[in-house]
C-alpha cells in the first residue's frame, strides 16, 4: 500500500455512511483505486457484505469474487 500511495495525490470518494455515521469511501492514489490494487497484490480479501454501495465489485469486478 505504501508503494501505491507514496507521492500520489489521494482522493476519497464517499459512498455512504455506516450505522455509526462514519464515512465509507473509496480511496484513489492518483488514478489507482487502492482497493483494486490491494486485491490484485493479494494484500486484501473481497468480502461482499463489507462492500457498501458495491464500489469494489463495480471497480474491481475481475478481482471481487
From TrEMBL:
<dbReference type="Pfam" id="PF00565">
    <property type="entry name" value="SNase"/>
</dbReference>
<dbReference type="InterPro" id="IPR035437">
    <property type="entry name" value="SNase_OB-fold_sf"/>
</dbReference>
<dbReference type="InterPro" id="IPR016071">
    <property type="entry name" value="Staphylococal_nuclease_OB-fold"/>
</dbReference>
<dbReference type="InterPro" id="IPR002071">
    <property type="entry name" value="Thermonucl_AS"/>
</dbReference>
<protein>
    <submittedName>
        <fullName>Nuclease</fullName>
    </submittedName>
</protein>
<feature type="domain" description="TNase-like">
    <location>
        <begin position="2"/>
        <end position="52"/>
    </location>
</feature>
<dbReference type="GO" id="GO:0004518">
    <property type="term" value="F:nuclease activity"/>
</dbReference>
<dbReference type="GO" id="GO:0003676">
    <property type="term" value="F:nucleic acid binding"/>
</dbReference>
Amino acid at each position: 500500500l505504501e508503494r501505491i500511495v507514496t507521492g500520489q495525490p489521494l482522493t476519497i470518494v464517499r459512498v455512504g455512511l455506516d450505522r455509526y455515521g462514519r464515512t465509507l469511501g473509496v480511496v484513489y492514489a492518483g488514478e489507482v483505486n487502492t482497493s483494486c490494487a490491494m486485491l490484485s497484490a493479494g494484500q486484501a480479501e473481497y468480502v461482499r457484505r463489507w462492500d457498501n454501495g458495491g464500489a469494489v465489485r463495480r471497480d474491481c469486478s475481475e478481482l471481487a469474487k
